[in-house]
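Subject — a protein and its fold
Encoding — discrete vocabulary of local shapes:
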Amino acid sequence: MERYKDNNKDSESQVGDEEKERSAEMMKIILDHLIQEASEIGSGHNGVVFKVDMKKEDFYEHEHITKDDWRGFLRKMFDMSEEKIGEIIENPSAGKVLKVYMPGAARGEFNGQTNVNKATFDLDPEKYAKIPGTFFSFTMENISNELKEKMISYGIKSSILDVFFMEYIDDAIEIREHVYRKIIDKCDQFSDLKDKDGGYKDKKEIYEKIENALGCNSKQAMVSDKKMDLLIDFLRENNIQIEEDILNKIELTMNYLHNEQNIFHNDLHDRNILIKKVDDNFMVYIIDWATASRGPKRGNIDDDLLVYKLRSAKYKKH
């Protein structure tokens, strides 16, 4: 039987032993079902990131997971309001992100992103970047052998899992992919990275081909000195510029957080900035606030570096 520990509260849930057993069993069933229904969209050294499509017609056809089961689970385990439950279950764009981590990795990200989401919630999305909403986080101890085997297939070898459930942004892409698509559109040498319908190939293929051509390591973050310098030189040579709308939204948001909230991201690289085009405008999202702090941390990525570097592409090199 899994043991449940709520990461959203300082102490463990004070329900009775019998109720705790039922809740733990429901947690096991729900996590199993979520992972079975999810598709992997990313991974890192601490865990794996899944997309869960809760809009699928058969999502609630599992014999043990009706909508009422979900409602009861969320209400009981996380003391969640009906409005918040509705955001998860009834939202017509109910795609969600399920992050499954090694123990100890999810709580900091959940708390950091929750706090920053609250701090920026009322900012105008036409001027500022948005921070995706969070729903819940929990730790599962002594997971079943079946679930353990599933997670081993994703590279997570632990009998304890940290789980973090958050909003998914449909059709959003990393800012690196956005920049590379601009390169594809401008440079004939990368025309094969478009498919016959005019769309773009898989981002892994895009990253590999463009970064090989630039002469840099595709596993490095865009803010790494060598990769960024090579990229900026290429953008300058080909007169490719990143939209000011995107850069301004990142800059204004970080300025607000620094100056008004004293919050610093500390890991603001290209994988943590998502771009979504809506008509002729861009929505910008900043994610992964696991290393967020009050005041900057020495030795981490400068929050202003990525925007500064990308903006420099419009200026000639002296």
User: Anything to note?
Assistant: Residues 173-314 form one domain.
